TrEMBL record:
Biological process (GO), any one: riboflavin biosynthetic process
Encoding gene per record: ribH
Family (UniProt): Belongs to the DMRL synthase family.
Catalytic activities: (2S)-2-hydroxy-3-oxobutyl phosphate + 5-amino-6-(D-ribitylamino)uracil = 6,7-dimethyl-8-(1-D-ribityl)lumazine + phosphate + 2 H2O + H(+)
Annotated function: Catalyzes the formation of 6,7-dimethyl-8-ribityllumazine by condensation of 5-amino-6-(D-ribitylamino)uracil with 3,4-dihydroxy-2-butanone 4-phosphate. This is the penultimate step in the biosynthesis of riboflavin.
Short name of any one Pfam family annotated for the protein: DMRL_synthase
Protein name per Swiss-Prot or TrEMBL: 6,7-dimethyl-8-ribityllumazine synthase
Keyword set includes Transferase: yes
InterPro entries in the record: LS, LS/RS, LS/RS_sf
Catalytic-site annotation from UniProt: H98 (proton donor)
Coiled coil: none
PANTHER family xref list: 6,7-DIMETHYL-8-RIBITYLLUMAZINE SYNTHASE, 6,7-DIMETHYL-8-RIBITYLLUMAZINE SYNTHASE DMRL SYNTHASE LUMAZINE SYNTHASE
Amino acid sequence: MATQLKNLSDFSSASNIPSAAGYTFGIVVAEWNAEITGALYNGAYQTLLKYGAAESAIHTYPVPGSFELTTGAELLLKTGKFDAVICLGCVIQGETRHFDFICDAVANGVSNVAIKYSKPVIFGVLTTDNQQQAIDRSGGKHGNKGDEAAVTAIKMAKMAELTAAL
Ligand SMILES: Nc1c(NC[C@H](O)[C@H](O)[C@H](O)CO)[nH]c(=O)[nH]c1=O
Ligand SMILES: CC(=O)[C@@H](O)COP(=O)(O)O
């Protein structure tokens, strides 16, 4: 499987990451599986700082679960004050089909909010079979999806800025 072949968060060879300076970011973080989402958040926050975002330009809001990430993104984007919103969560399969409904709702919801406001909303949600897969992708052997979400937010904020000038 491709995932097993690499650290998915290795940006060392990526020279095409724009500066995050001047952009305002929202980060909405689900409290479910907090040990995982906390690691995702730390990765995203530190990555934004690494690429030049000001601490004062990063605004963080917790929500109860991943299902609420869409609402969190909507509430932030309706203010008109954010260049990108990063949604962080971790949904781990349980005994029932609840997993499927949450994952589908968040993926579709995040996409719809991004389109509604023509602003980047980044899907930084782990959807795993078990806890170990989540650990591996939140600072473990497969990298940190929070890092990736932050890089995506920077790139998309830059694209939004460039296309607004067209
Ligand atoms: N089981 C997980 C949940 N469940 C909670 C939902 O996200 C939502 O808060 C609830 O249905 C009320 O609307 N959330 C996660 O983020 N991760 C899970 O594994
Ligand atoms: C993804 C979930 O909501 C899950 O944790 C709930 O567990 P279960 O499906 O066993 O009720």
